[in-house]
Specification:
flat, mainly alpha, 126 residues, 44% helix
């Protein structure tokens, strides 16, 4: 993030000062290798996207996990769930979602007996 500001003539120190970040922390973070989990996620994500696309967008985490296992990629379902949520992928939902209450716009509303004043100075006042 800070590296692209160097092209504008800004150094690391002033930018880190504004962000309240020590320059040594920035340099250490920049030089640190990517974590193994991030590397594995980057390797798995195209596979997950491909299986999801091949299914026409209908497969959820369970089916994608099984499909990846059949292709020789053993991965935990919770990992697939996390990556699908991170990239906004979801499977098809069977049936219709149930809507329990459908209010009628023209139906009369009950009268407001307390005039939206819910303050009480003693118990059982309203």
């Amino acid at each position: 993030m800070i590296g692209h500001l160097r092209g504008r003539g800004l150094g690391v120190d002033p930018v880190c000062r504004v962000l309240q970040l020590s320059p040594s922390t920035y340099v250490a973070r920049k030089e640190r290798p990517k974590p193994a989990r991030r590397l594995r996620d980057e390797r798995l994500m195209p596979l997950i996207e491909r299986v999801h696309a091949e299914s026409g967008g209908t497969y959820g985490a369970r089916r994608i996990t099984r499909a990846l296992g059949r292709k020789g990629h053993e991965v935990a379902r919770c990992t697939v769930e996390r990556l699908m949520a991170e990239f906004g992928l979801e499977g098809a939902i069977r049936g219709r979602r149930r809507r329990t209450t459908v209010p009628e716009p023209s139906a009369p509303r009950p009268p407001d007996l307390v005039d939206r004043d819910f303050t009480a100075s003693r118990p059982d006042q309203l």
